[in-house]
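Milestone 3.1: sequence recovery, worked example.
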C-alpha cells in the first residue's frame, strides 16, 4: 500500500467525519493517509475552487481523484506511529 502525505501543514481537524470518510475512500484505493494530511489537502482543494469546505461527492473515486494532487508519496517504514487512523482515537 502506498503511503501519502500532504505537501504543506496547518492545525486542527474541523470536519472529522468527512476526513474519516476520505481516509476510508483513500484506503480502498490503496493509499494510507494521515487524517491531518487529508484535512490539509481537502482544505486546499476547496480553496482552489473558492470554497470554504467542499462537500464530499457521492462517488469515492471522484473524491480520491480530486485530493491526490495535494498529496505526495512518502517512504514506507515499519514504524507507523506518525500515522493517525480513526481507530487510534481515544
Amino acid at each position: 500500500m502506498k503511503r501519502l502525505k500532504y505537501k504543506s501543514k496547518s492545525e486542527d481537524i474541523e470536519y472529522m467525519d468527512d476526513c474519516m470518510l476520505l481516509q476510508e475512500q483513500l484506503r480502498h484505493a490503496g493509499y494510507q493517509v494521515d487524517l491531518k494530511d487529508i484535512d490539509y489537502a481537502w482544505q486546499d482543494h476547496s480553496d482552489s475552487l473558492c470554497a470554504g469546505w467542499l462537500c464530499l461527492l457521492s462517488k469515492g473515486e471522484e473524491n480520491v481523484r480530486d485530493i491526490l494532487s495535494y498529496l505526495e508519496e512518502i517512504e514506507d517504514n515499519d514504524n507507523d506511529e506518525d500515522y493517525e487512523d480513526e481507530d487510534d482515537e481515544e
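The mean pLDDT is 84. The longest strand covers residues 2-6.
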